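Justification of computing resources. Each target in the renewal requires a structure prediction run like the one illustrated here; the chain below, 177 residues long, is used simply to show the kind of job we budget for.
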Amino acid sequence: MTASNVTLDCGDRIILRPPRLTDAPAIAQHANDRAIWINLRDLMPHPYSLEDARDWIARIQVQSPRVSFVIDVNGEAVGAIGLVLGNDVERCSAEVGYWIGAAYWGRGIATSALSRVCRYAFEELALLRVFATPIAPNPASCRVLEKAGFEREGLMRRACIKDGRILDMALYAKVRD
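Resulting structure tokens:
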């Protein structure tokens, strides 16, 4: 399997796959939502434009190893999930981040995608640890992490600034057995 063609089947017509340029309109539509942006890092622009989607796709298409994926439900790009690989002494760890369009919330899609990308991280990338740092006032993301087998390791007080507010971040991790 080459880095460019990695596709991960989550079951129930959900797959994780490399983005295609034809995904740009759907990605822009789903990502251009303040309710999504408010819980993500500022690297995700808001408003989110078609050009932002095209730029993201261009960056992701050349990844090696493949660490970022479109969340595809029934043939439509409805979100994204990715790993930020650690380096130096953290080279066996990665931070995971994800988002999914609001129309798809509450269906278990993010949990399926997260579980599958962790299996890929452990089996194919030989990582030992995958962690996430959701903004603490985001209980839905914390619940997704817990349902995917992550354990809460702590609370990082006053750890980030989002939309002009100083906020806590939770720390969740899943380790390879």
